[in-house]
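Box 3.1 A note on notation
Throughout this textbook, protein chains are presented in two layers. The first layer is the amino acid sequence; the second is a token string describing backbone geometry. Keep the layers aligned when reading.
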Amino acid sequence: MTIPQDSTPCIDLHCHSTASDGALAPDDLVARAADKGVSHLALTDHDTIAGLQLARAAATGSGLSLISGVELSCVWRSQTIHVVGLDFHESDPGFLAALAGQNENRWQRARMIADKLSRLKVERLLERATEAAGGDVPGRPHFAEVLVEAGVVPKVAHAFKRHLGAGKPGDVKACWPELPEVVQWIVAAGGIAVLAHPRKYRLTATRLRALTADFRRAGGQGIEVSVSGQSSGDLGFVAELARREQLWASQGSDFHFPGAPWCELGRITKMPDGLEPVWHHFRQPIEA
């Protein structure tokens, strides 16, 4: 099936709000998505569904259909991997308990980041980062924002380059669960487990094939084929992975903030032919 960029329906199954590391509140995100022509949206905040209620209320009457979503962190062969959960039961007790555990992992990581950056002598660093996150668990972008505000660095990019980026003191790894466990959380809640943005992990082709195979064996059902900032070569390679492992194809902008045209809501690259869309398998299937 071919999915043109300006298709009707316009389906975006990966984006973030202030409930995790996005810049827009859930209701503002929904409003922007509707304005951009998105007809079906999944809000996939990191390890939380705290924004879904507000997003769902905003979607009512907007002409946009909201699909339950989340992006869960896990580990595969010592590598941090993200799995998107779609169309799950939001009130499933086991799933909510798992999310609570993920939330505590994130708080533990935030406290460790604050401790690692204590040498910068920024007063109330953790508290201010939490405020920047709207009272939720702060991530590295929120710490970067505080470092700029405190005058430690002139721009967020400098904060990552000097203090928070890969290999820097604030680059703290969390203790995430293993990939099969996270996949089963989603499946047990009636949802669809999707391997998120596979080319962003910078794995070799051999390791990415191994990851995809292990993901499928663990119960994974889908893979993000069309994502923002991806070359045509990567698009074709991931499409072939989907065919090889018989995974349903998903797509999403991975939108975090306005002003980045390469990852705007609803801006989805045409997906290659011969793939089975993940949304055909939702509890209420979406038909193009």
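Confidence is low (pLDDT under 50) at residues 1-5. The two ends are 10 Å apart (CA to CA).
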